[in-house]
Amino acid sequence: AKHKGKSAYAHFAPEMTEVSHERLQMESRMRRALELNEFELNFQPIVDTDSGNLVAAEALLRWNNPSMGMVMPDRFIPLAEETGLIIPIGEWVLQEACRAAVTWKETTGRDIGISVNVSPRQFRDPGFTSTVLNAVSSSGLNHNQLELEITERLILDNSIETAEILRQLDDAGVRLSVDDFGTGYSALSYLKSYPFDTLKIDKSFVQDVMKEAEDASLVRAIINMAHSLGLSVIAEGVEEEAQTHFLKQEGCDYSQGYFYSRPLPTEDFETWLKTTQRL
Ligand code: C2E
Ligand code: CA
Ligand code: CA
Ligand code: CA
Q1: Ramachandran angles phi, psi of 271, nearest 5°
Q2: CA of 144 to the centre of ligand 3 (A)
Q3: What per-residue confidence (pLDDT) applies to 2?
Q4: What is the pLDDT of residue 9?
Q5: Strands 69-71 and 146-151
Q6: Which of 236, 260, 262 to mutate to test the pocket of ligand 1 (most atoms within 8 A of CB)?
Q7: What SS3 class is residue 120?
Q8: Do the beta carbons of residue 238 and residue 247 sit within 8 Å?
Q9: Measured from the CA of 80, which atom of ligand 1 is nearest?
Q10: Where does the EAL domain start and stop, copy by copy (predicted)?
Q11: Which has fewest Cβ within 10 Å: 40, 189, 226, 229?
Q12: What is the mean pLDDT of each run of 10 residues along the chain (279 residues)?
C-alpha cells in the first residue's frame, strides 16, 4: 500500500473531525426533537387549475430548533434517513397531517385532501403500512383523503415488497402519487403495473415552460400520457401567471406553487381555507 504523507494527514484530519462533530451534534439534537416538540408542519395549497379553488394541501416538515433556528427538510431529512430517525419522525408527520385535515373539516366544513411525503427508509420499514392505516383510522380521516407522495427513485428498486406495499395501501383506499416525476431516469413501465393515482410533474420542468419549447413539450406529453393511463396530474413549482394559462390550456388538473401560496403554518392555512371559495 502507498505510504500516506504525514502532512496530508494532518491537513485533512481536522476538517473531517469538524464535519463529523457537526453531524453528531445534529443527530443528538434530532433524537430529542420529537419529545421536545420541535417539529412543525407547514401546508401548501394544491388548487384546481381551472378554477383556482383549493382541493388539497401538501404537508411539509419544518424543524424549529432553539440553537439552529428553522431548519428546512433538505438539511435534515438525509441524516434522518441515514440514522433511521425518519421512521418515528415520519410517523409523527402522518398522524399530525391526518389530524390537521380532520380539524379543518370541523372548523370549515370542508373535506380536503392531504398529501404526505414518504421517504425510502420509511417505506421499507416493515411497520409502514400499519403506521399509515393507524394514522388514518385514529384521526377519523377518510382513507381516500390521504395521498402518499412517493419518489420515482423509490419505485425504481422494482422489488416484490414495493409492489406488495403499494397494493396494500391502494386496497385500503389510500391514494398514491409519484413525486418529482421526470427526474428519476426511470423506465415508464412501472406506471402500468403499480396502482398510482397521480403524477406530480417536477418543478424543474414547470419553471421553464414559458422559456424553453422543450420543457413545454415535455409537460404537454406528460399530461397526455398521464391522462391516457387514467392518472391525474399536479404541476409543482407554479410561480407565474403565464404558467397557469399554459397549464390550463394543456388540461393539467391541479397546480401548486408560490403563485398560489407558499407553504403556510397551520393557522394561516386555515385562514386561507376559510377565505377561498369552495368548489
Ligand atoms: P417536495 O416534496 O418536492 O416538496 C416541494 C418543495 O418545493 C417544498 O420545499 C416547497 O416549499 C417547494 N415549493 C413549493 N412551491 C414552490 C415554487 O413555486 N417554487 C419553488 N422554487 N419551490 C416551491 P421544502 O418544504 O423545502 O421541502 C423540500 C423537500 O423535503 C420536499 O420536496 C420533500 O422531498 C422533503 N420533505 C418535506 N417534508 C417532508 C416529510 O414530512 N417527510 C419526508 N420524507 N420528506 C419531506
Ligand atoms: Ca412532495
Ligand atoms: Ca389508488
Ligand atoms: Ca416534488
Answers
A1: -60, -45
A2: 8
A3: 45
A4: 52
A5: unpaired
A6: 236
A7: helix
A8: yes
A9: 44
A10: 23-277
A11: 189
A12: 49 65 93 97 98 96 97 97 97 98 93 96 95 98 98 81 94 97 81 93 95 94 96 98 98 98 95 74
Looking at the DSSP bridge assignments, the partners of residue 199 are 178, 233
Using the mean position of ligand 2's atoms as its centre, give its distance from the Cα of residue 138 in Å: 24
Distance CA 89, CA 34 (A): 7
Residues 59 and 115 sit within 8 Å (Cβ to Cβ): yes
Cα–Cα–Cα angle for 140, 95, 84, rounded to 5 degrees: 150
Ligand nearest to the CA of residue 44, numbered in listed order? 1
- Residue 157 is predicted with a pLDDT of 74
Q: How many residues does the chain have?
A: 279
Per-residue confidence (pLDDT) for residue 1, from 0 to 100: 44
d(CA 254, CA 160): 31
Residue type at 32 in one-letter notation: R
d(CA 177, CA 144): 12
Strand segments, DSSP code E, in 154-275 are 175-181, 198-201, 232-235, 254-255, 264-265
Residue pair 248/50 in contact (Cβ under 8 Å)? The answer is yes
Under 8 Å between Cβ of 210 and 245: no
Q: What ipTM was reported for this prediction?
A: 0.98
Pairing of strands 254-255, 232-235: parallel
pTM here is: 0.93
Dihedral sign, Cα of residue 105, residue 111, residue 117, residue 123: positive
Helix (H, G, I), strand (E, B), or coil: what is residue 10?
Answer: helix
Ligand 1 interacting residues, C-beta cut-off 6 A: 44, 60-61, 72-74, 77, 90, 93, 117-119, 149, 179-180, 203, 237-239, 257-258, 263
